[in-house]
Amino acid sequence: MIDYIKGKITELTPTSAIIETGGIGYFTHISLSTYSLLENKDTAQIYVYEAIREDAHLLFGFFTKEEREMFLLLISVSGIGANTARMILSSLSVPELQQAIAQDNATILKNVKGIGLKTAQRLIIDLKDKIGRLTGDIKSIENSTYSSVKQEAASALVMLGFQSAPINKVLDKIFSGAPYPTVEQAIKQALKML
User: Which top CATH class is 139-193?
Assistant: First the structure.
């Protein structure tokens, strides 16, 4: 099996990338998150999953090993094929998906195109234990996401002239619920509360 492809990006769309290496262009299906990380790059190394079927040999490319691991977990769930797994990873980042599964949040999952309530619930049931083993500790992912987003939001608010102590109190309130907001959402909410 191919582990990764490293080479020149000759073509890039939101759903696919062609990586040329050794004079061969490899067509890989990618998620939107991988696309956004490959944008404006000339070369890349992408991790690959090779799907071999009777009628086709397909390559799915991922910017990180974690995204590929999550893809493999998703396709292990009955009723979720490679394209549906790619759609899920285009709609949710790996930490967001892990958080949704850990918190039994079927609502977030069924908002993904092609995922109904029953599939979302099956996905949670099948992957809840596996997610814990994959990440080691879901809380550490949540905390690292929380701290980096909170830090960025706090820095922006300090630059806008607010004091650190009230900023931290407001951001703690904003981040007490789940799912965690993005930096932009945190700043907007904080501005209303400061």
Answer: mainly alpha
